[in-house]
Structures are given as C-alpha cells and as structure tokens.
Design goal:
Elements lengths: L7 E3 L5 E3 L8 E8 L2 E8 L2 E6 L2 E7 L3 E8 L2 E7 L4 E6 L5 E6 L2 E7 L5 E6 L7 E7 L1
Antiparallel strand pairs: 1-2, 2-7, 3-4, 4-5, 5-6, 6-9, 7-8, 8-13, 9-12, 10-11, 10-13
C-alpha cells in the first residue's frame, strides 16, 4: 500500500482513503464532500486526523495512511499503514462498548467515554498493512 498522495480520496466502493505519513510539513484538505458529509483531513509525519462535519472521526499519532475506511451504524473498518507503531483514537457513539480486532486478532472489548472516544495502539513497525475492525458489542 502506498501513501495517499491526494490526502483524501473517495473509492469506487464507497469507502475513503486518506493520510500521507511521509510529509515533513502539515498538509490539509478541507470541504471534501462524501456521502452527504463534509470531510477534512490534516496529515504529516507527526499526526493524521480525519474530521466529519467538524467532529473528529480518526486520529493517529504518529501519522499514518488509511485505506478502505468505512463507517456504519455498527462500527468502523479500515486498513492502516505507518512507519512505526501508532496510537489511534476514533470518534464513535458515547458510552458504548465495542469489540476491537487488530490484524485479525481480538484485542478485546473497549468502552467509549462520554465524548465517544475510543483509543488503542496498533503495531505497525515492519508490519505493512494492518486491518482494523471496530464493532458494537
């Protein structure tokens, strides 16, 4: 998988891809229309952040590239790549329990806080692409 040079793009299957962790300076793309929502991405080697309608949907530290990002009422799925391990925070439903799968392995049940944030780590160093699935429990 390569970084997303367009910063943010809609895929033919309805998913989005975003993020370029190779950038030395912060780049952003605003007002991207997708499925009736306004998306905004900020990305570079230190952070990748995707917002939907002004709310944080995805954030990684350090920066990552994400493909096949799909959000449904039951959760989020995506494939992530980066040069080193990353801390990922997702904006989901508040005070809700989710099943988290990283690289096909069950990472356990996690509950969002009152702000709807769910944070977890993904081992990316030398791993290539890692598939992440978050489902309501």
């Amino acid at each position: 998988m390569a970084v997303v040079k367009e910063l943010l793009r809609a895929e033919a299957d309805g998913t989005v891809s975003f993020g370029d962790y190779t950038l030395a300076a912060k780049s952003k793309l605003e007002d991207f229309q997708h499925a009736g929502d306004l998306l905004k991405v900020k990305t570079f080697h230190e952070i990748t952040r995707l917002e939907k309608n002004g709310m944080v949907l995805y954030e990684s530290v350090p920066g990552t590239s994400v493909t096949d990002f799909s959000e449904t009422a039951d959760g989020i799925t995506f494939t992530v790549e980066g040069p080193e391990d990353a801390q990922i925070t997702l904006g989901l439903a508040e005070d809700t329990e989710y099943e988290v799968y990283v690289g096909g392995q069950d990472a356990g049940h996690m509950k969002t806080n009152l702000g709807g944030k769910l944070s977890f780590s993904v081992e990316l160093a030398g791993a290539g692409e890692v598939k992440v699935e978050i489902k309501k429990a």
